[in-house]
Design a protein that fits this description.
The protein has one domain. It is elongated. The strands form four sheets. Strands 1, 2, 3, 8 and 11 form a five-stranded antiparallel sheet that branches. Strands 4-5 form a two-stranded antiparallel ribbon. The mean pLDDT is about 80. A hairpin with a 5-residue loop joins strand 6 and strand 7. It contains no helices and eleven strands. The two termini are about 15 Å apart. The protein is mainly beta. This is YmaF family protein.
Length: about 130
Amino acid sequence: MALYPSDWTKAPAHAHAYRATTSEAEGHIHLIEGFSQPANGSNTDRHVHFYSGITSFDRRHYHRYYAITGPAIPRADGAHYHEIEGITYLAYTTAPPIQYGGVVYVSDGYKERHRHSYKGITREIVGNEPLGW
């Protein structure tokens, strides 16, 4: 029996780990990683997951991102994965000086801002209940 049968009534709630690197912009890249939101689904029902987070903190800034995965893609072992793809939100090329740290998002119009794209696939399935539980 496959881990995720295609019978919807037996499809447990689960989440996926993900990790990807962004495209290069302004001479740097960022790492994105985290866990998708849980969803009920099997390897054949084309379910999707919401995911969001912030990139790694590089060059004194980070970017926010959020998106929905592509539909479930079956693996030979009965599990599945999802494609992830998107564009980060804007961040300043050079972080404005602030006394207590962090990143300030303002629309002052005089600082250059940039985005990064990313593309990858989800990794292992996490957070699901054992079969027969």
